[in-house]
Amino acid sequence: MHENWKFLTEAHKFTDLPQDEIPEIVFWGRSNVGKSSLVNSITNLKIAKTSKTPGRTRSLVFFELKGKFRIVDFPGYGFSKISKGDEFKLNKLVDYYIKKRKNICKFLVLIDSLHGFKKIDEDIISQLNIFIKKKIFIVFTKQDRLKNKCQLDHLRNLNDIAGKKLNKKFFNTSIKQVNTIILLKKFLMSS
Ligand SMILES: Nc1nc2c(ncn2[C@@H]2O[C@H](COP(=O)(O)OP(=O)(O)O)[C@@H](O)[C@H]2O)c(=O)[nH]1
Ligand SMILES: [Mg+2]
Questions:
Q1: Which three-class secondary structure state does DSSP give residue 62?
Q2: Which of 37, 175, 179 to mutate to test ligand 1, by most ligand atoms within 8 A of the CB atom?
Q3: Alpha carbon 1 to chain centroid distance?
Q4: Is there a contact between 34 and 76 (Cβ–Cβ < 8 Å)?
Q5: CATH 3.40.50.300 fits 5-189, yes or no
Q6: Which of 75, 83, 123, 178 is most buried, with most CB under 10 Å away?
């Protein structure tokens, strides 16, 4: 089965945001965590640019499944290669989106399975909790990179933090393990 996901638009300012009621699933996380790769896997398309150089996304990128759902690829946080002026504008847009956007149905915070939660991730999650607590889910990425028992135990630990301490539903994923993508996708497309 091939769904017809398409690139819709790229938002740099409030007025660029689509004005309708279509539910939006947001992918956020540190630069390089694997947002765009995951968006590509979920949509079965190579539509989101992936890169080896972090900090490139300067906008909110919207993909749409025929009037049913949208996926929003958020600009990565952590390291930014954009100018201060652009960064300020982008932060204002992100802020506005999180506080006001009614379309948000699920908000995924991606965490690298090897690196775990950083201070910035914790700060972001507590900020998000203020506005959209019930819509936040944690996605651990790149789990194929875990090789030894120690690293696998570390992921179990991260899972415990997500589930027990943060009280969030979580998913362990890898774009190289189709079953993990199918599971996540099923959850995202359920109401
Ligand atoms: N091994 C492995 N590498 C991944 C996975 N997902 C993403 N990557 C790699 O991580 C890098 C950053 O990915 P990207 O999707 O551009 O991250 P973004 O900055 O969060 O959008 C790229 O080199 C990807 O190929 C994964 O599941 N497994
Ligand atoms: Mg990206």
A1: strand
A2: 37
A3: 24
A4: no
A5: yes
A6: 75
